[in-house]
Every structure is written in C-alpha cells, then in structure tokens.
Amino acid sequence: MSSLFGTKQQKPDVNKMKLEIQQASALANAQQLINNMNNQCYDKCILKPSTSLSSSEEGCLSNCMQRYMEAFNIISTTYVQRMSKERHEQTA
Length: 92
Fold this sequence. Notes:
It comes from Wallemia mellicola. The chain has helices at 14-45, 55-91. The chain is an all-alpha fold. It has one domain: Helix Hairpins (Orthogonal Bundle). Helix 1 runs antiparallel to helix 2.
C-alpha cells in the first residue's frame, strides 16, 4: 500500500506501542501518587513552615507517607483482584 508521499507504509508495531503507552501511564500514575501523598502529608504535618523540619514534623511525615503507601497498596491490590475476577466472569 502506498501513502500520500508515494512510499510504502510500514505496519506499526502495536505491541510496542501498547507497552510504551502502559509505561507512560504507569509513570504518570506514580507521579500523581507522589504529588498527592506530598500534598496530603504536608498539609497534615507542617503547621508552621520554616527553613527546616522539626523532629516531630519529620516523624509525622514519615508515618503519614508510610500509611499513605499502605492504603494505596491495599486499594490497588483490591482493584486488580476485582478487575481480574470480572474479566474471568466475562470469559466464563
């Protein structure tokens, strides 16, 4: 098949394109997760911003970030399990 420019058009590698889209999506999701976590924990733990963190602020941030990641992991695992179950039910 010829294109508008008179050269043979190559068939795109669909699997490669899917992988690149998945990787870009995963990166965007990770960046959003980090931004949301930073905003939530900053608002909760930093009451009086200054040039350095107090030990209580550091502890609060550490705990907040750890809990945020734990909650995210629980939600992600539950979501993946639900989607897998729904896919399995649709194919059965």
